[in-house]
Specification:
globular; 3-stranded antiparallel β-sheet; Protein Transport Mog1p, Chain A
């Protein structure tokens, strides 16, 4: 699931290369400054799915019938990384996502505007009908964020329920979501809660 194009496309990346100007008076023995997008990779751990670069660690849903995978586009500071867990049965449309990507400079805004204006416009364009059930401020990875839950109708997929949470740290978007057929939501409520409580992003 992709926030900027629900259920289908991956996030697009725009990353400007950093320019370095040498200072002839700089102390050669001084340590080089950390890159703007430096982070401490998260470790592998039992019961968790960790992205190859260590940016994201997510709890593997318990019980049978789940599969998890990673998607990555770009490298280093330009990387867009997503960890997704979904039901293996193609008749069961339910999947969880945790992702991070750089926000283009011209699109940088606050979490509420990102979720309730930009992402909302995408949802309303994709679904035939969208009703937001709630939205509120939250804390994600130690940063101010925003969360919303909605119900939607799709001509082919039927009734869909979706929960989204976003935060911005510097020029990076952090996003967690769960999306799927509304009828599957009650049976997997604990897994959804565990996903939102258990996802970790490297800092």
């Amino acid at each position: 699931m992709n926030a900027s194009a629900p259920l289908l496309a991956l996030l697009a990346l725009l990353a400007l290369p950093a320019c370095k100007v040498d200072d002839p008076q700089a102390d050669a023995s001084s340590p080089a400054p950390a890159p703007a997008d430096s982070f401490e990779p998260l470790p592998q751990a039992p019961g968790r799915f960790v992205s190859a670069d260590g940016r994201i660690s997510a709890p593997i849903p318990t019980g049978e019938g789940w599969e998890c995978l990673e998607e990555q586009h770009g490298e280093d500071s330009a990387a867009a990384v997503a960890v997704r867990c979904r039901r293996e049965d193609p008749r069961e449309l339910l999947f969880f996502s945790a992702k991070t990507h750089r926000q283009p400079r011209q699109q940088r805004t606050d979490p509420e505007t990102l979720l309730m204006t930009l992402y909302r416009a995408d949802n309303e364009a994709f679904f035939e009908h969208v009703e937001y059930l709630r939205d509120s401020p939250i804390v994600l990875a130690g940063a101010h964020g925003w969360e919303a839950e909605l119900e939607a109708t799709h001509g082919r997929l039927g009734e869909i329920r979706k929960r989204e949470r976003v935060a911005l740290i510097g020029d990076r978007v952090l996003a967690i979501s769960a999306e799927g057929q509304a009828e599957l939501w009650p049976a997997h409520a604990d897994a959804i809660t565990a996903w939102f409580e258990g996802v970790r992003f490297a800092r």
